[in-house]
Protein: DegV family protein
Organism: Paratissierella segnis
Amino acid sequence: MKYKIVADSSCDLNPELEEVLDVELIPFKIDVEDKSFVDDKNLDVNELIKAMHDSPYPIKTSCPSPGNFAEKYKEGDSIFVVTISEQLSGTYNSALLAKKMTLEEFPNKFVHVFNSCSASVGETLISMKIQEHIEEKLSNSQIVEKVETFIDGMKTYFISEDLSNLIKNGRISKTQGLIANVLNIKPIMRGTQDGNIEAIEKVRGSKRAFKRLVDIIGETGVNFSDRILAISHANALQKALDLKEDLKKYNFKDIIIVDTKGLSTAYVNDGGVILAF
């Protein structure tokens, strides 16, 4: 039986993970004013960041089509799909429609689509968990049950240093954004249980915000010893390394760091950091 893991390009990886994690990514398209970017290996993230910074207009993202997913489903017998939160994008519905199309043509295939209720490294951890269970030779139904349980317990947090994209896209009002910029307020955001985004605290100053984030993680009451912490950063490696050092005290099973690709960069913006566990 041939297994296949498919994810959209919100799933952020580093070269080490690309070597060991057998996941195929389907790219988003990102439009910034009159410029279009395809979120694949050829994307220049710094060019995307510059375009977003220079443009007064909101970015527009186009999720993979059902046809994009269906093409990848042809290549395996058991296909497991991971998408960005259904609350943030139409990708989950595209992947489900592709499943229906595929099973009509190939009724003996197995296809399951996981709504990550997250993004970025949340999708990375879910893909890693799927591969772990495939290697354990669990049945398809066991893999689905265990991974859905993992998703239910996963935590996602992020801090955006630059709020301009959130303001342009209407997630933060211009007045709130102006006040935040003047007072140097950094919202600490998290993914909700249903996969939406909410601000949980507003902290004055970047260093204080990241210090408070470390404390918030410690207050979750999670058993960290059996969890991997994944940190993605948008052009902010030192912040990610500092976070890793500060979070070692919780004795995570492992801590990995990746760069954000196009879509995650568009969400968190230049200097932002996302983490999941």
Observations:
- The domain at 156-276 is CATH 3.30.1180.10 (Hypothetical Protein Tm841; Chain: A;domain 3).
